[in-house]
Amino acid sequence: MTISSYSERPAARTETADGLSVPWSRPSARRKGVSARMVSAVTILLLLAAWALSARLQLVSPVFLPSPVAVWNKFIVVIKDGFVDATLLQHVVASLGRVFAALVAAILVGVPVGLAIGISTVGRGIFDPLLEFLRPIPPLAYLPLVIIWFGIGEPSKILVIAIAMLAPVALSTASGVRGVSRERVNAARSLGATRAQVVRHVVLPSALPSILTGLRIALGAGWSTLVAAELVAATRGLGFMIQSAAQFLVTDVVIMGILVIAAIAFVLEFAIRRIERALVPWAGRE
């Protein structure tokens, strides 16, 4: 063989690789004028149109499914005049206060527990079984026990929500700690960093994306637990408003409350995503 025959082989190999690329692996050209937001907006509009059409044709009784216009009118009325002795703003503030207080408690407990699980074998042996025991239990199961121990005051409501938030925060933190690059830890130790400095300057910043993901999951768990928590002698709150309306078949208030909770959860999710982009812009790019 000549030298030219060897030099031609890499080129032939490249051409073969390009020719063997399967159709579904080739990058397809983006469709101009179509975006995910546009598709989402069209989907929401179609759902609203189907809802309005079914209400107009009375496919379902208005007692069970009021029209979007009726829900909107009730929304305006509740903002101005209130429902069950409180305006909509007062209900929202009460619920947000409970959720954020529970979130702070879950962070103060869950992040150190997650660090202990991810760093220490002893910590994993102590806290892992407890979290796995609490995680699958629905809030309504331990709600009576919380009432017996802590009464029917505000702390019991916050505690129920915090317990639901604890497992996502702790497990996400532990997952982030386990995913810390060993090279970074060894580099910090080689520079003379102590164990506390390694945790503070290497482990926590590296685990921060996972911690923020856990906060997003915890907020979803907190809002889903809110209705159960506000069953305990509450006088204000979105969950209390929904439960009171359901007892008297005021379905438009029930739907309105659900939509308000969904809107607040969407805003909080958007805010956490923005915070994540600001604090950990490198997440997912390493």
Verbal overview:
The structure is a single chain. The chain is mostly helical. It has one domain: MetI-like (MetI-like fold). Helix content is 77%, strand content 0%. The protein is built from eleven helices and no strands. Helix 6 (139-150) packs across helix 7 (154-178). The longest helix has 35 residues, at 195-229.
Indicate the topology.
Elements: H1 3-20, H2 36-56, H3 68-81, H4 88-119, H5 121-134, H6 139-150, H7 154-178, H8 182-190, H9 195-229, H10 238-247, H11 251-279
Percent of residues in helical segments?
over 70%
Name the CATH homologous superfamily: MetI-like
Find the count of extended strands (DSSP E, 2+ residues).
Answer: 0
CATH-derived architecture: Orthogonal Bundle
CATH topology name, in short, is MetI-like fold
Helix tally?
11
The average pLDDT value, as a whole number, equals 81
**Coarse shape:** globular
The succession of helices and strands, N to C, reads HHHHHHHHHHH
**Tally of structural domains:** 1
Distance between the termini: 45 Å
* Biggest β-sheet strands, sense, barrel: none
Can you summarize this structure?
By secondary structure, this protein is mainly α. The protein is 77% helix and 0% strand.
Structure characteristics:
mainly alpha; 77% helix; 286 residues; globular; MetI-like fold
